[in-house]
Specification:
Blueprint: H1 2-26, H2 34-56, H3 60-88, H4 93-122, H5 125-129
């Protein structure tokens, strides 16, 4: 779990660095809700990852169902969050949406990498020694 959190914080730091690099080097405006977006996406990603690992890592069938349910939950929650952000700042909607989509993609890839590792570590040795059919 610590490695996932370190990866998530690293992605956040890289995203913030990229935002300020674009701003100071190319003159691109900063998204108005940048801190809200980064905090919300990172926090929700961590909470969902922790829930999945703690509750579904032992059973691959339940893990698949739990992961798909978490994807549906994320789509609903993130969609509502982004709709509020766009409503509150209609002039900066594009910048906020692009930041959201880029950061969501990075956190989703981070989540997938760590979730693929977690269930495979939990399997017993007999499962690994069974020949493929």
């Amino acid at each position: 779990m610590k490695k996932f959190l370190i990866g998530l914080l690293s992605l956040t730091a890289v995203t913030v660095s990229g935002l300020y690099l674009l701003h100071f080097e190319l003159g691109v405006g900063l998204p108005s809700f940048r801190w809200h977006i980064l905090l919300f996406v990172a926090t929700l990603s961590y909470i969902i990852h922790k829930f999945l690992v703690q509750n579904f890592a032992d059973d691959p069938a339940k893990f698949s169902i739990g992961y798909m349910a978490s994807v549906a939950l994320r789509l609903l929650v993130y969609g509502a969050f982004l709709a509020v952000v766009v409503y509150l700042d209609q002039t900066g909607a594009w910048a906020n949406t692009i930041l959201f989509l880029c950061f969501y993609l990075l956190t989703a890839l981070n989540d997938i990498v760590f979730l693929i590792r977690s269930p495979s570590k939990k399997r017993s040795d007999t499962d690994r020694d069974t020949p493929e059919r």
